[in-house]
């Protein structure tokens, strides 16, 4: 299809498509003349992915590019593939107070979670828990943190039970699923809070 | 305490504190001379809250102000209070395709969740599910969505079980807890995915 048809198929304006091509986010079409190129379904799918990550997922174009780079070269084992997807999604150079880093590591160890030693998510978690504590919300191995970890395990099971066998499709699903479903979970949590609050607190 | 001591107590530089005062995010201190004012623990607590919401929570200062306005005038029932907190956190003017709005409403109804008719979170959820579907991830009443809703209910129970009786403290906990714990949940989910993936997929 021509670029105008790619635009119709994806709902993305031609100038934006040209921007994606210039920035290398979208692979070039097959040149059919000096000024025209032909695009196919792989281009439409890539455009929809870029939109999903940047619009719905709220990722910067620089991070979209990192994610696309990871998607372009998927590792062959599904476990390493998950690592690659998560690396592309985790902010670089996260550091936190060593005490909180140790707390986060201790927490996942006590849960029995197998997490590699240099996993940057540990420091990310440490920093997030530190922020909670600074805001006056108690953080220990007690109720809320354990309940969240239980919930995270159920969600991870649901996430992984639907990962396809094909590595490229699997990576795409993990990345897109993670970026796009974090907001869904946040919204469901608020709705569930309203429902429970209506049951628990509302005056009759 | 003087502004320099407030700065020491909170770790926030004096020029930033002056900015918060100018912008009305921080209530004025008690004027002790033409150029000096005295601050107390209520100022330190407010500064920590602003930092938590803007730095760790990633809220814009405009939204921080909305949240602070809601905190300044807490409703008396804990159920309405939750609504006020959530209103301050929900982006304004969210709209979505009516078909997806209806799907989201149908979903919460089928879950038996009591949600008010004009709840803006319904359209927010509809838009998020629409984005998932556009990215090629199947959305129906089946496995992932139901598993997420189950997890959301457990999390909401944990959230609400620790809400204090005092309305102002309760509102603060709900708002801060929601803003600061969404990222914690997202990180725990990734860690749980890694753990499950190591168990399920890793080559021996």
TrEMBL record, chains A, B:
Entries under SUPFAM superfamilies matching the protein: Putative DNA-binding domain
Keywords: DNA-binding
InterPro entries with a match to the protein in the record: DNA-bd_dom_put_sf, MerR-type_HTH_dom, MerR_fam
PANTHER family named in the record: HTH-TYPE TRANSCRIPTIONAL REGULATOR ADHR, REDOX-CYCLING DRUG-SENSING TRANSCRIPTIONAL ACTIVATOR SOXR
Domain HTH merR-type residues, every copy: 1-70
Molecular function as annotated in GO: DNA binding; DNA-binding transcription factor activity
The protein's name in its UniProt record: MerR family transcriptional regulator
